[in-house]
Every structure is written in structure tokens, then in C-alpha cells.
Amino acid sequence: xxxxxxxxxxxxxxxxxxxxxxxxxxxxxxxxxxxxxxxxxxxxxxxxxxxxxxxxxxxxxxxxxxxxxxxxxxxxxxxxxxxxxxxxxxxxxxxxxxxxxxxxxxxxxxxxxxxxxxxxxxxxxxxxxxxxxxxxxxxxxxxxxxxxxxxxxxxxxxxxxxxxxxxxxxxxxxxxxxxxxxxxxxxxxxxxxxxxxxxxxxxxxxxxxxxxxxxxxxxxxxxxxxxxxxxxxxxxxxxxxxxxxxxxxxxxxxxxxxxxxxxxxxxxxxxxxxxxxxxxxxxxxxxxxxxxxxxxxxxxxxxxxxx
Length: 307
Fold this sequence. Notes:
Blueprint: E1 4-14, E2 23-37, E3 45-51, H1 64-75, E4 83-89, H2 99-114, H3 121-132, H4 135-143, E5 146-151, E6 157-162, E7 168-175, H5 181-186, H6 194-213, H7 216-222, H8 229-232, H9 239-248, E8 253-256, E9 263-268, H10 272-284, E10 290-294, E11 303-306
Parallel strand pairs: 3-4
Antiparallel strand pairs: 1-2, 1-11, 2-4, 2-5, 5-6, 7-9, 7-10, 8-9
Helix pairs in contact: 1-2, 2-3, 2-4, 3-4, 6-7, 9-10
């Protein structure tokens, strides 16, 4: 009989203001991957995709989940087994919610589950970081929660779970246009002033305490950043109007989710729905179609179930 395994991987929001390339959180929005081992020649793959923007996802060897699946075996000097992959998408593509990380994590976990000699989580985390290039999305996608990841010279990372107060609600607004991570990185400077480094160090420290305590007065200050957001905001038309609307409706602050263009508002529970509505209205006034999601922190990370 064929072996089948299903992987559910959460969306992520990275950076959260001053935590550039090191801080991320898993959210209650998911992509699902089903891997079925086939009794066919090695390297054989069939891929089907359903769900959000399914027609834009490759169904051949260039599919990112399959590339991660194949990388797992290649990196261990093993033949890539024949596999059928069924993908069901709920995370928007190229919008700053970690869709590529869900594919990487899904592919690696699928391969590990079908392997006769599975790796431990430390080895899988290292492999995921190497494929993604930085830890801020893949780490929370893999283990859940809000995670601070400090890279080490050997390619691994020291992971520090960050407590997230239950009264802090992440509200994301997803516009109907894309912003590639490569384009968002190209606008960043190659060096920063001492003042900017001190600014971000202080704000990241305050953000971590604000997330833990739920203190809105700290969060309103802590989401400031000088490393990436000032340079990326001009790439997101309507940013200022959406930020003003979110703050006016009661959000603690608004930041770019990952590389964007999705925007993330941190809100108190009682204002979360109003903040989502206000952001949709603000962006809609400029003719931009958007979708708002009032989400929660996913604390479980990627989940594996057998068929």
C-alpha cells in the first residue's frame, strides 16, 4: 500500500517592525500538503494544486514544495523517491505572509516523514533556514508561536520563544497586488548609522516586553523601525492612509508583514474587527481591492498526520 502523509503549515508574519530577519510569528492561516509515496521510478512526481491562486503554482519539478522535498534527499546522498503531492492553499502568494516558507517546511517535513531514517527537528530547522536564507519565517512556520531566531556560524540558530499576550490580536490586510522579496530587499541600504542601530536595538527590546505584557503604551512605541520599513513603504501605495485608519480605529500600530505588501496591525481584542474594517475602507478609497483577516497566534506550528 502507498504511504501518505499530510502536513499543515501556518502562515507567518516576519520582522514585526524592528525585528528584521530575526523575529517572526505563526498565524492561524494555513497551507496543506499531502505526500503519497508511489511505486514508480525514482524522481517521478505528480502535483495537483487547489485553493487560493492555485493556477499560479507550478505543477512540475520547479514547484517549491517539491524542490524542498528533493533537496532533503539530495543533501543526504539519497535517491528522491517517487511521490504525488496534493497542495491546498489558503495563504496568499507573494504577499508577505510566508507562502514560500510553508512550501519549504511542508516539503522538508513530507520528505522526513517518508524517509526510512528521519532527521530531528534541529537538523530540519537548519535545512529550512538554508533553503529560505533567513530564519524569521521558516522557524515559526515549523515550530509555531512567536520566535526570535539568532543565527550561528554553523548554519543553525538559537531559538527563543517570545511570549505573546492573549489580548494582542494580529490583523492583516492583504492587497490585490504583489511585492517580491527580491524587490523589497533591493531598496535597502547596505549600511546603517550608529543612531539607527541603537534605535532598532531599543525598539526591539521594548517590542519583546510589549508582546509579553500586552502593554499598549509600550507597543505603540515599540513598532518603530529604521532598518527596512522606511525604505519599503514607498513600494506600497496607500500605506500612510491605511496606517492612519488602523491607528484611528484603535490599533497599537501598523507594520509591513515580511517584505509586504500585506500590512499587519497589532490591536486590542475589542478593536480588532473595527481595525480590519477601517483598513479595508482606507485602501478601498484609492481603488485597491483588499481582504482583511482577524487572526490569532498559531502555537502549534507545522502539524503532521498520517492518512
